[in-house]
Specification:
- By secondary structure, the chain is mostly helical.
- It is built from 1 helix and no strands.
- It is flat and about 35 Å long.
Length: 45
């Protein structure tokens, strides 16, 4: 999951409804709390 740090979000797939702003606001307030963690270099490969 940390590999996604700093990447932009994409919208829903074509034909799907947009996410309601109140859901985005709730998620921002309740889930993304505090400072973002920094991704460490990947050791995979």
């Amino acid at each position: 999951m940390l590999d996604l740090v700093g990447r932009g979000l994409i919208g829903p797939q074509n034909g799907s409804a947009r996410v309601a702003s109140e859901h985005i606001q709730w998620h921002t307030a309740q889930v993304f709390r505090g400072e973002a963690r920094v991704a460490e270099p990947s050791s995979r490969g």
